[in-house]
Design a protein that fits this description.
Elements lengths: L3 H36 L5 H22 L3 H12 L2 H26 L3 H22 L6 H21 L4 H17 L6 H26 L9 H25 L4 H7 L2 H13 L6 H28 L2
Helix pairs in contact: 1-4, 1-9, 1-11, 2-4, 2-8, 2-9, 3-8, 4-7, 4-8, 5-7, 5-11, 5-12, 6-12
C-alpha cells in the first residue's frame, strides 16, 4: 500500500501530467487557429471578431454557471462598479484583447500568417519592453541583448517587405499591452476574462445588428458552412481558454512558458504548409534573429545565476 507521502507525490504527478496535456491542447488549438480564421474570409474581419465576442460570452457564461461560478462572477462585477480604477483596467484589457484577436483574423484573411507567427515569437520580448517602459522593471545586459537581436530581426523584415510589418507588431504589442494591464487587475483571471468579453458584448451585438439591418451580414445569409464557422468562434475561444486556465493552476510557470512557443511554431507551419505562404530567405533571417533573441532571453536567468556563482 502507498503511504500518504507517496499518494501525495502520485497525485502531484497526475495533476502535472493533466496540466501539461491541457497546456498542449490550448496552445495547439491557438497555433492552428489561422486555418479556422481563413475559412471565415468571406465575412469581414470585424464581423468575425464580433461573432467571436457574442458567442464566447454565451459559452464562457455557460461554463461559469455549470462550474458554479455564476455568483462569483456577479460579485466580481458588482465590486468593479464600486472600483472605477479596476473597472477601467478591465475595459482596457478587453480592448487590447479584442484588438489582438482582430490582428489574428486580419493576418489569416490577408495571407500573412507567417508574419503573424513571427510576431508571436516577438511577444515575450515586447512584454519585457513594456515592463521596462511602464513598470520601470530593470533589464540586465543579457536581456537588452535579446531585445536588440529582436530589433535586428524587425529591421530585416522592414527591409525585405519594404514596409512596417504591422501584423507582426500588432499581434505582439496588443498582447504585451494586454499582459501589462492584467498585471494590475485584482480580479480572478477566469472571471476577469468573462467580464472582458461581457464589456465588449454591446458593441459587438450592435455592429452585428447593423450589418444584418443593412444586408451586409454573412451570418444565416445562405452560406451554411460560413454561418457554422461564425457560430463556432465562441467554442474555439472557450475550449483553449478553459484548458489554459486548468494548465496554469497545475504547472510551474517555467514549463508553461516553454510550451507557449508551440503556438508560433504551429502558426508558421500552418502558414507555409496549409495555407501555401512562402518563407523567403529574408523572412527566415528575420525569424532567426527573433528566435535567437527569445532563446537568449529565456537563458538569461540561468546565465545570471552562473555568473553570480562564479
Amino acid at each position: 500500500m502507498e503511504n500518504a507521502p507517496e499518494r501525495g507525490e502520485t497525485a502531484a504527478r497526475q495533476a502535472a501530467g493533466g496540466g501539461l496535456a491541457a497546456a498542449l491542447v490550448s496552445y495547439a488549438i491557438w497555433g492552428m487557429m489561422p486555418i479556422y480564421w481563413a475559412g471565415t474570409a468571406p465575412a469581414l474581419p470585424l464581423e468575425v471578431l464580433s461573432h467571436r465576442i457574442v458567442w464566447a460570452v454565451a459559452f464562457i457564461g455557460a461554463a461559469l454557471l455549470i462550474t458554479g461560478r455564476g455568483r462569483a462572477l456577479a460579485a466580481a462585477s458588482r465590486a468593479l462598479v464600486r472600483d472605477p480604477r479596476q473597472a477601467s483596467l478591465i475595459l482596457a484589457a478587453a480592448l487590447f484583447a479584442s484588438l489582438n484577436w482582430l490582428v489574428n483574423i486580419l493576418g489569416a484573411h490577408t495571407g500573412r500568417v507567417v508574419e503573424l507567427g513571427t510576431g508571436m515569437f516577438l511577444t515575450p520580448l515586447m512584454t519585457v519592453l513594456f515592463g521596462a517602459l511602464f513598470f520601470h522593471e530593470r533589464l540586465g545586459g543579457i536581456r537588452l541583448a535579446a531585445v536588440a537581436l529582436a530589433a535586428c530581426g524587425l529591421a530585416v523584415m522592414v527591409f525585405s517587405l519594404g514596409c512596417v510589418p504591422l501584423i507582426a507588431l500588432g499581434v505582439s504589442s496588443t498582447w504585451a499591452a494586454y499582459s501589462a494591464v492584467k498585471k494590475s487587475v485584482r480580479v480572478n483571471a477566469v472571471l476577469s476574462t468573462g467580464i472582458e468579453h461581457a464589456l465588449m458584448l454591446p458593441f459587438a451585438a450592435a455592429y452585428l445588428a447593423w450589418l444584418a439591418g443593412s444586408g451586409q451580414g454573412r451570418f444565416l445569409a445562405g452560406d451554411a458552412a460560413l454561418s457554422l464557422l461564425l457560430f463556432g468562434t465562441g467554442l474555439v475561444t472557450a475550449i483553449p481558454m478553459v484548458a489554459y486556465s486548468y494548465a496554469a493552476q497545475r504547472l510551474p510557470l517555467s514549463v508553461l512558458g516553454f510550451v507557449q512557443y508551440l503556438n508560433p511554431v504551429l502558426t508558421i507551419c500552418v502558414g507555409c504548409l496549409a495555407l501555401g505562404e512562402a518563407l523567403g530567405p529574408a523572412q527566415a533571417l528575420a525569424l532567426a534573429f527573433i528566435v535567437a533573441g527569445v532563446a537568449l532571453f529565456a537563458a538569461a536567468p540561468r546565465m545570471g545565476r552562473k555568473k553570480a556563482g562564479g
